[in-house]
Amino acid sequence: MMKEIIRLPESVSNKVAAGEVVEKPLNAVKELMENSVDAGADSISVEIEEGGLSLIRITDNGRGILKEDLPAAVERFATSKIRDIDDIWNIHSYGFRGEALAAISSVSDFSIMSAREGEGNELRVKFGAAEPLRPAPSVQGTCVAVKELFRNVPARLKFFGSPQGLEREIIRFVKQFAVFTDGVSVRVKSNSKEVFSAGRDESFLLKAKTALGVDELIYGEKEYSGVFVRMAASLPTVQRYRRDAMIVAVNGRVVKDAAVVQAVVQAYHRLIPENRYPACAVEIKVRPEDVDVNVHPAKAVVKMLNSRDIFGMVHDCVKETLDNKKNAPAGQEDTAVNVMPDWFGAEPSEQKEYFVAEARPTFDITSVMETVQEKPSYSNTYREHPQAQKPVYEERPYRIIGQAFDSLIICEMNGSVFFVDQHVAHERVLYEKFLNEKNVNIPSIVLFEPMVMEADAEELRAAEENAEDLAAFGFGLEVFGTDSLKIVRVPADILKRNIEKEIREMLSEMAECAKGRQEDSRILTMSCKCAVKAGEKLTFPEMDRIMADLLKTSNPHTCPHGRPITYSLDKETLFRKFNR
Questions:
Q1: Which end of the chain is more exposed for a tag (fewer CB within 10 A), N or C?
Q2: Res 174: pLDDT
Q3: What residues pair up with 146 in beta bridges, in sequence order?
Q4: Nearest to 64 by CA among 119, 124, 4, 130
């Protein structure tokens, strides 16, 4: 009877392994560059064509491979990195599994030229079939050429994107790899054109700026109990929509580590908005015996001992570096972290008198029937005649200067000029007010003629489920027919805005809140919608009221979403711009 279980031929097993180790041209580049560093190279050249599908050539000046070892180099589970099972738990090199060259050579026209001790040799393997050794130039180092990758596995080629996309992946990885390999120069050519280079003397910070495409990076490091963390992290002014600008390495190996990424994200809490992410390069150096690198075929994931402590170290390293930058003496404003200082602990400045601007005219309720986007017509001009001015509000530690772009409140305090985002400042004030008051009481106006707006099923559901909250915040919404909402009452503060747009945005956010994003999400939504908007002209008393109330909040630094409220310039920095 024929056996059902057979031993796969080596040519087949190597192709199977190639699917795990070499998923894309990127993986081949990664494995070959790591081999170069393991060989002691301090200069690596990478050449690719058609995104690596036509050609990948890696040339280094490492110690080379002995003639006797070349045939074994492309055999599966053949390696110079480990000798026995105990070495698995004490890995000092990038490679150790002995699978990469066997996998790559089984799915490509592969050649490896290497010279050591003055003797050069070349081994060629065409899609798994090795040819006899032949002499090669005796140039110290190794050159590996991979041509027509995956030509004998056409099914794999169907899943690749464009060559341009594959090229971008390779270049991105090489840049990241260069960040964490000190003292190694790297050069990349794509289709015969140089696209990236990094010198062996370039600093960690400089290479991180190049890899991330961000100049606003600051360097920090922390060491404790055999663990060393170094990082280049962006200032809060850098805000990305995805996490892919955060790269992590463990002992020089670029890996994926969600916990480390989350530690960085938490360090930026209340410095950048929610759902925005910083750019950073973080390297963790631990004792080899404290990290398990044998948990992923492509070595893209590792496990570290005491991962919770390392999480805390990374978080503290980023946060302390940002705090130190924030509290450092003023320097160039393009590298300073501008957040609101501790107003409560500051000495009050000399009391200065300022005066009321022209008051806002009374709102005509009939105008809402004509338009919901009527522009205010009042003036916000600072009166120039003292006899026409009246002092307002006593004992302020600041002086209101005016309003910029109908969006920023400008004030002077403690030797600095502050630009305060009126919307997020008012949002912070309202959020804490609504959060602390048991009975929210928002002034509202009943519309003489109700408005009707079309609504989809999600909006109707949100209006019904949040009817009590809406009523408490001054909104009167009623389901009207099967696909409409009738607006009978609105808060007085939104009469000058696009009422339908405001309500749609509010219902959309409430629908998300119902999915359990956060406990006080409804209050957060209402505080955002009821706050003054960017683009609204404010009188001096209105600006003063916002500033005074902001000083009383528990956190005048950021809005409830985490956005910064102020940007400051100290007197010395500002005067330097005028050569004073």
A1: N
A2: 95
A3: 56, 110
A4: 119
Residue 175's pLDDT is 95
Measured CA to CA in angstroms, residue 526 lies from 363, 372, 502 at distances of: 22, 19, 10
Token code pair at residue 29: 């580049």
Give the model's confidence band at 81: pLDDT under 50 very low, under 70 low, under 90 confident, else very high: low
Burial of 227-265, coded b for 16+ CB within 10 Å and e otherwise, reads bebbbbbbbbbbbbeeeebbbbbbbbbbbebeebbebbb
Tokens of 524: 């957060």
Give the containing element (helix H, strand E) for 303. strand 303-304
Q: What is the DSSP secondary structure assignment for residue 395, as one 8-state letter? A: S
User: Smallest Cα–Cα separation from 496: which of 405, 403, 375, 370?
Assistant: 375
- Beta strands 109-116 and 55-60, pairing class: unpaired
Cα–Cα distance measured from residue 273 to residue 236, given in angstroms and rounded to the nearest whole number: 9
- Whether the model pTM is above 0.85: no
* Structure token pair of residue 245: 């600008």
Distance CA 136, CA 114 (A): 8
Query: Which residues neighbour 500 within 8 Å (Cβ) at sequence distance 6 or greater?
Result: 372, 451, 453, 487
Q: Helix/strand/coil (H, E, C) string of 247-292?
A: EEEECCEEECCHHHHHHHHHHCECCECCCCECCEEEEEECCHHHEE
Look at residues 431, 501, 506, 518 and name the one whose alpha carbon lies nearest to residue 462: 506
265: left (phi over 0), alpha (psi -120 to 50) or beta: alpha
CB atoms within 10 A of CB 519: 9
Helices assigned H by DSSP within 22-88: 25-38, 70-73
Q: Which of 475, 482, 550 is nearest to 507 (CA)?
A: 475
Rounded CA separation 283/296 (Å): 19
Residue 393 to residues 356, 383, 399, 428: CA-CA distances in angstroms? 10, 17, 11, 21
Residue located via tokens 């200032």: 235
Q: For position 41, what pLDDT does the model report?
A: 92
E strand or H helix that includes residue 102: helix 100-106
Q: Are 420 and 563 in contact (CB under 8 A)?
A: no
CA angle (289 as vertex; 285, 295 as ends), nearest 5: 90
DSSP 504: H
Amino acid identity, position 41: A
| H helix runs in 409-448, sequence order | 422-436
Q: Which helix (H) or strand (E) holds 449?
A: strand 444-454
The structure tokens listed for 401 are: 């200067």
Provide the token pair at 214.
């961000």
Phi and psi based region of residue 143 (left: phi greater than 0; alpha: psi -120 to 50; beta: remaining) = beta
Which residues, other chains included, contact 462 with Cβ-Cβ below 8 Å and sequence gap of 6+?
A: 507, 508, 510, 511, 514
CA nearest neighbour of 120 among 100, 105, 95, 140 = 140
Pairing between β-strand 246-250 and β-strand 303-304 as defined by DSSP bridges: unpaired
pLDDT-derived band at 248, boundaries 50, 70, 90: very high
Sequence-ordered list of residues with C-beta below 8 angstroms from that of 50, at least 6 positions apart, any chain: 163, 166, 191
